[in-house]
Write a structure and sequence with these properties.
This protein has 348 residues and is α+β, with helices and mostly antiparallel strands. It is built from 10 helices and 12 strands. The strands form 4 sheets. The chain has a 4-stranded antiparallel sheet, covered by helices on one side. A 3-stranded antiparallel sheet has the order 1-4-3. Strands 9-11-10 form a 3-stranded antiparallel sheet, with no helix packed on it. Helix 2 runs parallel beside helix 4.
Length: 348
């Protein structure tokens, strides 16, 4: 593909770790911290794309994983195709080794931040949050990557670490159900002594950090056009569309772009202005016919017990439990102002 070709070209200009985007990003973050650590009320987000495919890193990190060099005759696999695993186990192990190498580089760069916080004695008044947006399948469930399959636990139960100097709890795990994607905003605002805005659905996690106080009964997650998922911490319910054509499904936007291209003329053909949502502040949005970017919705409805079946190997058949989880899902959809056609698409 043109992306793989460009990647091979880019690697020629990243002969050393300091040439890679991750190293440059962390270097800039460290510079900000050093210049501002003596000031009050500042915030920095160090956003690094890694560990992300392609799993390209330097030889010093690859040497940590000898399996990468067991057989030099096998082709390079550090950028797997999204979907079923079709490669031999030797290639699967190699890809896992490349991922581990890149993860080790991420650990080293995060370590630079922790070391600097040690050196500058910042732990008494500085909050540190480490989080990632999703996982990545490396052969689990006989699948690669994400999006093309259900949001299994390996993908959706992401690492999340918080140091809150107000309570000073360290080396402890929490069991409360949290959603960093919406809880981070209220948590940071609370740390700075500010109130959450009316539109925020998340919760401050200060109580979770301090004593594992619960902030929600259930959480909803998923991606556009796929299954809609809900979990109460023990059970996870994945609801697929009721109709084979995955309709009705719409895009709502004021920025008519996909990830790599603009909306087509055909996509605008039946565009209409939708009535405002609460979060759009009275502004009407463009509504066009949506399309799913994966086959995730073809997996059907799935219900798993994460306590008894943490690997999600055997779906449950429990109508009563499914009804309860469906009720949680509907309530959270209403809270999120889901468009009415979503209920029709899911058959609830």
């Amino acid at each position: 593909s043109p992306w793989h070709r460009q990647d091979r070209i880019n690697r020629q200009y990243m002969r050393h770790e300091e040439d890679q985007p991750q190293a440059k990003t962390f270097k800039a973050g460290l510079d900000f911290i050093r210049r501002n650590q003596a000031e009050d009320n500042w915030f920095v987000q160090i956003e690094t794309f890694d560990p992300h495919e392609p799993f390209f890193t330097q030889r010093s990190y690859q040497d940590l994983y000898p399996e990468l060099f067991k057989n030099r005759s096998v082709p390079l696999l550090d950028w797997p195709t999204y979907g079923p695993v079709t490669e031999e186990q030797e290639l699967v192990e190699q890809c896992r080794g490349h991922y581990a190498s890149l993860l080790s580089m991420c650990d080293a760069r995060l370590g630079d931040i922790l070391d600097e916080m040690d050196r500058l004695a910042m732990w008494d008044d500085t909050m540190l949050i480490v989080w990632t947006d999703h996982g990545f399948l490396l052969g689990e469930h006989d699948l690669w990557a994400k999006i093309q399959m259900p949001w299994y636990r390996e993908l959706s139960n992401t690492p999340f670490f918080v140091w809150d100097p107000r309570c000073g709890k360290a080396g402890e795990r929490r069991q409360s159900l949290v959603q960093p994607s919406i809880d981070l905003g209220p948590t940071v605002l609370d740390f700075f002594g500010m109130e959450s805005t009316e539109d925020m659905l998340g919760k401050s996690l200060s109580g979770v950090c301090a004593d594992d106080s619960s902030v929600r009964e259930a959480a909803i997650f998923g991606n556009h056009g796929g299954q809609v998922n809900v979990t109460d911490g023990r059970y996870v319910y994945m609801r697929a569309p009721a109709a084979p054509d995955n309709q009705p499904l719409h895009d709502y936007t004021l920025m008519p772009t996909h990830m790599r291209d603009m909306f087509s003329v055909e996509e605008f053909a039946d565009m209409e202005l939708a009535e405002p949502f609460g979060f759009s502040k009275g502004c009407r949005l463009m509504r066009t016919k949506g399309r799913a970017w994966s086959k995730q919705h073809e997996y059907g409805n799935l219900l798993f017990d994460l306590e008894e079946d943490p690997w999600q190997a055997q779906a449950l058949d429990d109508a009563g439990l499914e009804k309860r989880m469906q009720g949680l899902m509907k309530g959270l959809m209403e809270e999120c102002e889901a468009p009415q056609e979503q209920y029709q698409r899911l058959g609830i």
